Amino acid sequence: MNTTSDLTIGRPGKLIFKFYVPLLLTNALQQLYSFADTAIVGKGLGDNSLAAVGNMASLCFLIIGFSMGLSNGFSIIIAQCFGEKEYRKLCKTLAVSIKLAGVITILLTALSIIFLRTVLTLLQTSSVIMEESLGYGYILFGGLFCTIGYNMCSGVLRSLGDSKTPLKAIIVSTVMNIVLNSVFIFWFKWGVAGVAWATIIAQLFSALVCFGKLRKIEFLKLTKEDFAVDLNMSVSLLKNGLPMAFMNSITAIGCMVVQYFVNGLGVAYTSAYSVCSRYINMFMQPAATAGMAMSSYTGQNYGAKRFDRILDGLKVCLAIAAVCYVIFGSALVLIPRQLASLILNGEEQINLVVQFMPICGAMMLLVDTLFVVRNAVQGMGFPFIPMLSGIAEMFLRIGAIVLLVDSIGFKATAVAEVSAWIGALLINAAAFVLVFTRERKLNSPDGQERHVISPVRPAHALLHR
Predict the structure, then answer these.
(1) What pLDDT sits at residue 195?
(2) Which pLDDT score, from 0 to 100, does residue 458 have?
(3) How many CB atoms lie within 10 A of CB 405?
(4) What's the gap between Cα 317 and its chain centre?
(5) pLDDT tens-digit profile of 375-405?
(6) Which pTM was predicted?
(7) Domain residue ranges in the chain
(8) Ranges of residues in the chain whose predicted pLDDT is under 50
(9) Contacts for 87-90 with beta carbons within 8 Å, 24 or more apart?
């Protein structure tokens, strides 16, 4: 059991912080090598190549975000099994998850490669950057199994309370990615294709590190029987995973519509929007990490029916999100030009970024809070409501860009982001209050919280009952 962490016992603040820090470092390193990709492309290959890579961002989020949502949905069921101490059910859940992930990986890979050129054309991709975008996309989607493999393995580890192994995996991946980027671009002269190859190879190694750790966990010894067809288990996993997957993809569709309008303004706008997206995603990560911690923590405690602890955990994660807002929101508001200049060369592009960042920075508390509350709802096994919030995000984002782009230009992209955050937060906050209140009453018929004070039995005792 020393390879996992039981989040149902102990002080919530201490447990969450101990779990959060390695998770934060993991995500920070992921953002570092994403930033390194951007900086190397922008400074080494030029703003047009940067536009080609940035043009793929929303499409990558559509495909990769779908797989991430799916694996996160599966992992919540695993976390609930772990909280219940149902280890045989946990093994069966993991085995079925692996089979489903394999099938979905094949489908996503085929569809993304077949329709890549068509989608890029629909996005009004400039002929100047079309071939580079295609080359980058074919490689990235061709290696999708590496990305999904890492997401699945790291998601399972997090659900079991292990946030340190994904950190080790990303340390390896980050070093490899930065080194390979430099070699492939400056030595082999592979252009943006080199960036894609570096990403795929680095993700493969990070997946192998996480997989190696999973094999060492004593109660995760999968048998042939675990992989037997189980329609009920498959349906249960898909009912939790697909809404989370669709939520990410629906959000990505809204971003793609924004990308469509940005591309229509010109390549300079595409480059600027790429940089804005990179910084927003990077500065969101600390609060998004608090949301990931909330998901695992909620999943385990929901399985154990410890609703008192879920509420305590929510307060801790919201406090983390507030601190993140003060630090990173201030950076976007106060030093946007300096941040843009780290990546971009052209003055026009930099000036566009300066229009975007302060608006989103000032309102970032909304999305930071959203990450925590939405993951709390998902952790209780209710992914459908967050999916509805994703639909609301899409319509709000599209509506804002359509209505405002002609009157306020590039600033409309920032207003579209903030509008989406407001709508999604309102839906998820209301959902959390309703779901939490209902579930606590259903699981505590006498109106009293159920406090577990008996020691947790070891895994081997439960396996041989």
Answers:
(1) 87
(2) 35
(3) 20
(4) 17
(5) 999 999 888 888 889 899 999 999 999 999 9
(6) 0.77
(7) 12-443
(8) 1-2, 445-465
(9) 87/219, 87/459, 87/462, 87/463, 88/463, 90/219, 90/220
- Do the Cβ atoms of 352 and 272 come closer than 8 Å? yes
Instruction: Copy the structure tokens of residue 234.
Output: 């498959």
**pLDDT of 463:** 32
CA angle 57, 277, 361 (to 5 degrees): 160
